[in-house]
# Entry
Amino acid sequence: FALFIADPAGGIYTCAGDPQGGFGPWASVSEGSSAPGASVTAVPWGDRFALFIADPAGGIYTCAGDPQRGFGPWASVSEGRSTPGAPVSAVPWRDGFALFLADPAGGIYTCAGDPQRGFGPWSSVSEGVSTPGARVTAVVTAPNRIALFLVDPGGDVYRTSGNGENGWGPWSSVWAKKSTPGAPVTAVVGGSNRV
# Structure
């Protein structure tokens, strides 16, 4: 396993190993920083990992590498912004990634690309809204379709699907269950069930 954390000072660190054989020492990921205890998104990318964070000022950054060989420098993801330390959702898309976040006003935005070639501009996902910096859950459900889930400012659970190239459907309520405004939603694709 490769592990990634934001330490109590906000530094981004990694280590690798397994529960039976143990883990190596923690090492800084290119001196990256976020808010203390913030979310670090890691997605396998070939024989490396692509990492995504919201830095201490809310800027969205990425880098790529692995715990054994190290990581490249952090780079801005199309000057995207969220709240400090907010989660950035990332799913494999085409030959790169699709990213999703709630911006400082709670608007839901997406962009696509990769850490080497860069990312395209951020665009609204059907004018969706949650709380500032809330988690947007993204699941690839078909080769050209991504399902998104969130909890809006009123605590209602919403979903939409589509992609950044062909557009997104309207947001619709997932039954009548409520949660805490901006709470994370866990979603998985399983068996014959459709997301």
Remarks:
- DSSP finds no helices and 19 strands in the chain.
- The radius of gyration is 17 Å.
- The mean pLDDT is 95.
